[in-house]
Write a structure and sequence with these properties.
Blueprint lengths: L5 H11 L5 H7 L3 H11 L7 H22 L4 H11 L2 H10 L10 H5 L6 H19 L1 H20 L7 H13 L4 E8 L6 E8 L2 E8 L2 H27 L1
Antiparallel strand pairs: 1-2, 2-3
Helix pairs in contact: 2-8, 4-5, 4-8, 4-9, 5-9, 6-8, 8-9, 10-11
């Protein structure tokens, strides 16, 4: 199986700027929808990237913790918050998109049609799987170099408080400060069949809908709604201050 993707894997190595075992990188790009399809159609056996993703997740946590401990004089509390932010699905998906990992993913026909190449959860998992492959091929030192390369900008921004991901908390602080109320989240509907289902949630402020969000989980949809409402309110507040000046 890997032989027919040899040139693709070589291009992938060049694009992400790493040298690692080709077979491991091939596995890192194999989504479960692809391997399940191969088993059904060809009765063959092919390992998906799920085990590598599990390993890569642990390696990522260790590398980020090591970078924060040795490069920054910040408290344990700040290190914990920064690690949670930069290792989040949203940031890992952003990095995956920047590195065009989605173009190399091997997906099943159904996942391909449903937009799997752009799905944050799939992209984040694939990046962790790639890190797992790098770790098995080259060890921890090279893994840390890769993490620094892809996440240093986000770590710097998070340390400086310029990288916000917990929009629910930020929105609550904003609405309580302005109006003395908390946002109210309402599930509007759930569509699709697991694992391809998603939720649509609205966030209401002073009993008025401020924004709607969409996500694979209720929490994800709430965060999406909070993000839209928070940004909308911040733009309105900045515009108001500009007019006052």
């Amino acid at each position: 199986m890997i032989a027919q993707y040899k040139k693709t894997i070589q291009r992938f190595k060049q694009d992400i700027g790493v040298e690692a075992d080709s077979e491991l990188l091939f596995k890192a790009l194999c989504h479960s929808s692809f391997t399940n399809e191969i088993e059904r159609e060809d009765r063959g056996s092919l390992e998906s990237n799920e085990r590598l993703e599990f390993l890569g997740d642990a390696v990522l946590d260790l590398c980020v913790a090591d970078i924060l401990f040795n490069r920054y004089s910040v408290s344990e509390g700040i290190m914990s918050k920064v690690r949670a932010v930069v290792a989040s699905e949203e940031i890992l998906a952003r990095v995956s998109k920047d590195r065009k990992i989605g173009t190399y993913l091997l997906l099943g026909k159904g996942e391909e049609k449903s937009g799997g190449r752009e799905r944050d959860s799939i992209l984040a998992d694939a990046l962790e799987a790639v890190l797992g492959a790098i770790y098995l091929s080259n060890g921890l030192t090279e893994s840390k170099k890769f993490v620094i390369n892809i996440l240093e900008e986000y770590i710097e921004r998070a340390i400086k408080g310029k990288l916000l991901l917990d929009y629910k908390t930020a929105l609550q602080e904003l609405t309580q400060g302005l109006y003395g109320v908390r946002p109210d989240y309402v599930i509007k509907k759930e569509e699709g069949i697991p694992p391809d289902n998603f939720f649509i949630v609205s966030v209401n402020i002073n009993e008025e809908e401020a924004a709607c969000g969409k996500g694979k989980t209720k929490k994800g949809a709430e965060q999406d709604a909070a993000r839209k409402a928070y940004r909308k309110m911040k733009i309105a507040l900045e515009g108001k201050k500009g007019n006052e000046n």
